[in-house]
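Hi U.,

Before I forget, here's the chain from the pilot set. I'm dumping it here mostly so it's searchable later in email.
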Amino acid sequence: MAARSQTLRKAIGRAGNATRWGTITQAAEARREVRALKLAEHVERVVREFPPLTDEQCNRIAALLRRPQGTDGGQAA
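Structure:
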């Protein structure tokens, strides 16, 4: 298992509590936050390991993260 930051571990705990004791909306928001933190940690690892990107490459990748929410509500299939 990959090392997880303290922030991610706390978010996972909050998601568990929200799932058990909170509302459906609170649980969904907590799970969304966990996914966002996991993505951020993954991106940080990748960026550290890869050679520097050109401005064009950075802009293309940033555009993927800024895409408008589609009909899937932002959920990946």
